[in-house]
Amino acid sequence: MIVGSHLTKRYPGGYEAIKDLGFEIAGGDMVFISGHSGAGKTTLLKLMGAIERPTSGSLIVNGQNLTAMRRAALPYLRRNLGLIFQDQKLLFDRSALDNVLLPLEIIGLHPREAQRRARAALDKVGLLEREKANPIALSGGEQQRLAIARAVVNRPTILLADEPTANLDPESARQVLDLFVAFNQVRVTVIIATHAPHGIPGRQPRLITLDHGRLAP
Amino acid sequence: MNTWLRQHLAAFRRALRRLWAAPLNTLLSLLVIGIAMTLPAAGYVLLDNIKALGKSASGVQQISLFLEAGANRDLVRSTQDRLDAAVPGQWRFVPREEALDRLKSSEGMAEIVASLPRNPLPDAFIVEPRDGSPEALETLRETVAAWPGVAHVQLDSAWIKRFDAFLKLGRLAVSLLAAVFAVGLTAVTFNTIRLQVLAQADEIQVARLIGATDAFIRRPFYYSGALQGALGGLAAGLLISLGLSALEEPVSRLATLYGSSFTLHGLPPLQLALLASVGAALGWLGAQLSVSLAIRQMD
User: Fold this and answer.
1) Which residues is B125 bridged to in the sheet?
2) I need a surface site. Which of A37, A120, B45, B223 has the fewest CB within 10 A?
3) For residue B2, is it within any domain?
4) Is the Cβ pair A108, B7 closer than 8 Å?
């Protein structure tokens, strides 16, 4: 569950990306955060992912108030979040499998178990046969699916994705969205920031629309 | 195997991979560190050899104890007992007859000795205590001089003091040199690790986003710094061994000409391990400073 109350994010220089925002996202929800460019979508996602710290107000993620959280505790919170970025942030000096193994190395999982789980995650996103490929050799859609595999390999309770389909062709975008739906069906909270919310057949994802850092009326 | 140990092993492997991934850079860094460590370590080895040379020189760290003329067997025996009890080390009894024979065998002395009406030389002891420091020798000299029947005690303390002062000065110079090169080594590691951190900036950013602690990020760099320092220490040991092996034969030949059996000795395994450990510690320190600064700049 994620609860924001009077949430404000002000950047150095005084620009307020999020202004006195209040919202609640229940566990297992699938939510699109939409709005025009500069509305505050990415900032809100970064706040939820503990990449940015709120300036004021409170933001509770998985029962922990990020406003008051010590810096040293942030990595442990992030391990329960799956972060997917528009530019994927893959490492091109290693194979697809090694990219997915990284979160498991960080938590110190036994190498054999880590390999098993990383392969299972690659299988889930349809990339098991490309496990030895360098990410640079993958298509845009495959790279995004690889980023999803890395995000879910730790079995997070919340998936946060920033414009995950922005640079993809319609077919690849559909594959990526299908993956988010599949994870949401097993009670993973999925929050996607996008300027153009997609229709998902048979589902009515919740929509939070931002306008200049506030909830749009 | 617990998680902590597994993470340290993984960090150590990552550090090895990073060193292996850029062999030329690694080799050059090791060479710089090795040379920086060679100079003070070679100075230490040189002083150690000079100390050994001083010990092996005749008359050094020896006390000559002369009994009164006409000392009887009882006095000799009681002095022997006192030496056994009071002096850790070696001693040798030189009877007055043996001393006279030696004097006779000296060039030009035979006729003079023959003209003497009686043997004027006293019984004597040559004492070589285990503790050869000037202070210990002086204390022993005073103790022995107070024993009954002892007429004279001879110690070339001025020579020993000069030699000891020279060694102390040498040790101080080597220590200062070591301190300067320790700062240099730390700076070299600092820079090498800084370049590694910059090269791994993307990985560090991604790792932090997906839950890596600062400790997880820092660890491979610490190991990398320590490994470079330790390998640099071993390289210094190798350079010193090569230098000594080149000097060994000429030095032995020179010593033989002076009637000495002195030979050069290098770094024993324990001191080599100590050199590698000091290198590792300094490398670790350089890495720690470098990574702390780099991570603070990334925040």
Assistant:
1) B65, B93
2) A37
3) no
4) yes
User: Residue A143: which residues within 8 A CB-CB, separation 6 or more?
Assistant: A88, A90, A135
Reported as a single tens digit per residue, the pLDDT across A3-55 is 999 999 999 998 999 999 999 999 999 999 999 988 999 999 999 999 999 99
Nearest CA in chain B to A103: B210
Please report the ipTM that was assigned to this predicted complex.
0.87
Domain containing B273: what range? 11-56+161-298
B210 and B242 inside one domain: yes
Contacts of B208 in chain A (CB under 8 A): 75
* B216 close contact with A: CB closer than 8 A: yes
Q: What is the pTM assigned to this prediction?
A: 0.75
Q: Which CATH number fits domain A27-53+81-215: 3.40.50.300, 3.40.190.10, 3.40.1620.10, 3.30.2350.10?
A: 3.40.50.300
pLDDT greater than 90 at residue B254: no
Judged by DSSP in three states, A20 sits in: strand
Residue A154 at interface with chain B, using a CB cutoff of 8 Å: yes
Q: Is residue B3 part of a domain?
A: no
List alpha helices for B146-213, DSSP H.
157-199, 201-209
Q: Looking at the complex, does the CB of residue A108 fall below 8 Å from at least one CB of chain B?
A: yes
- Distance CA(A8)–CA(A57), nearest Å, equals 6
Least confident piece of the model among A135-144, B60-69, B175-184, B231-240: B60-69
Same domain for B23 and B124? Answer: no
pLDDT digits (tens, 9 = 90+) for A152-170: 999 999 999 999 888 788 8
Per-window interface: B 124-163 vs A, CB < 8 A: none
